[in-house]
């Protein structure tokens, strides 16, 4: 993997970056199915904490053949924002997992994937060259409209008495996800290697996640079924390891707001994966929602002019 550019490129994403983001969204969409399967044997917040622990051990093994190093640990100007990013990373997953337990899955997904709007606003004010243009704003709205259409049936389903609290926690989770991305782009972390940016978040996030699991009363018991262990390993190595490393490499080189906009494809891929692997039904407006998301992403990625 080549060394990242140190410039804040706010222009349209090149085809290679678009292809990588499509691949990442597909991988992350499949992760939504993996999380469901893993939760049958490992409680969700404990699952997130253990994922950080295992991934923190695997990332150096992945980075060694790529020539990526972690020397930034000795630089306080990078370590301090790295610790902040790790804490944001931990609280994001705590809010998300608790929130999903209080609201419906469809509402949780929609509130979580408002994150690209927060990224666009944050980079507009804090990252030179990554401005929120009219075309980008329109594209975000159109893509988000496609996401809402994909989950329209679930949004109409009745929720429990704590649904609004769950909605708020999922919204906070999305905002913290965005804050982590903006922090990486707007702080000295933009000068660090993607390997360091990821590794510091994994190491810092593990203790708060494990503590939160205990405080939430989750049973610290793992059902060692082969499928549970396989989907957990997919999350640790494939998601928290390889995919997040690729994500931070992309963020170091390209417009964070344009990259984040593609994340609305993740739940779309997740719905498709659920239909293919778990036999879950596709909503009647699924194809229309895909078309809207595609149109929105095209608008977001149009060159400024």
Essential attributes:
305 residues, mainly alpha, 13 helices, globular, disordered N terminus, EmrE-like, membrane
Write a structural description.
This protein is 73% helix and 0% strand. With 305 residues, the chain is mainly alpha-helical. The protein has one domain. α2 (44-63) packs across α10 (226-253). It starts with 14 loop residues before the first helix and ends in a 5-residue tail after the last helix. Mean pLDDT is 86; it is low at 1-8.
Number of domains: 1
Percentage of residues in DSSP E strands: under 5%
The average pLDDT score comes to 86
Low-confidence stretches: 1-8
* Major sheet characteristics: none
| Rg, alpha carbons | 18 Å
Give the helix tally.
13
What is the N-to-C succession of helices and strands?
HHHHHHHHHHHHH
Please report the distance between the alpha carbons of the first and last residues: 31 Å
Helix content: over 70%
Dominant shape: globular
- Find the count of extended strands (DSSP E, 2+ residues): 0
Helix and strand content put the structural class at mainly alpha
Family: Belongs to the EamA transporter family.
Main location: membrane
Transmembrane segments: 12-33, 78-98, 110-128, 135-152, 164-184, 196-215, 227-247, 259-278, 284-300
Subcellular location: Membrane
């Amino acid at each position: 993997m080549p060394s990242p550019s140190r410039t804040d490129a706010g222009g349209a994403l090149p085809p290679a970056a678009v292809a990588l983001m499509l691949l990442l969204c597909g991988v992350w969409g499949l992760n939504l199915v993996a999380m469901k399967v893993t939760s049958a044997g490992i409680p969700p917040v404990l699952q997130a904490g253990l994922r950080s622990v295992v991934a923190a051990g695997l990332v150096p093994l992945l980075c060694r053949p790529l020539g990526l190093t972690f020397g930034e640990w000795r630089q306080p100007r990078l370590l301090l924002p790295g610790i902040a990013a790790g804490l944001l990373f931990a609280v994001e997953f705590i809010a998300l997992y608790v929130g999903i337990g209080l609201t419906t899955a469809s509402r949780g997904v929609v509130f979580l994937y408002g994150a690209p709007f927060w990224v666009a606003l944050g980079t507009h004010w804090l990252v030179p060259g990554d401005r929120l243009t009219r075309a980008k704003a329109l594209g975000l709205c159109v893509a988000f409209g496609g996401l809402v259409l994909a989950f329209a049936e679930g949004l109409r389903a009745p929720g429990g008495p704590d649904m609004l609290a769950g909605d708020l926690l999922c919204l906070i989770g999305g905002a913290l996800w965005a804050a982590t991305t903006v922090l990486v782009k707007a702080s000295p972390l933009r000068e660090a290697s993607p390997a360091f940016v990821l590794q510091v978040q994994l190491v810092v996030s593990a203790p708060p996640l494990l503590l939160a699991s205990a405080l939430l009363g989750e049973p610290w018991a793992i059902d060692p079924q082969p499928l549970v262990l396989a989907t957990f390993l997919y999350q640790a190595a494939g998601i928290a390891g390889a995919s997040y490393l690729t994500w931070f490499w992309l963020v170091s080189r390209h417009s964070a707001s344009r990259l984040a906009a593609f994340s609305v494809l993740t739940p779309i891929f997740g719905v498709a994966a659920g239909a293919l692997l778990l036999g879950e039904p596709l909503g009647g407006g699924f194809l229309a929602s895909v078309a809207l998301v595609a149109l929105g992403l095209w608008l977001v990625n149009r060159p400024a002019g």
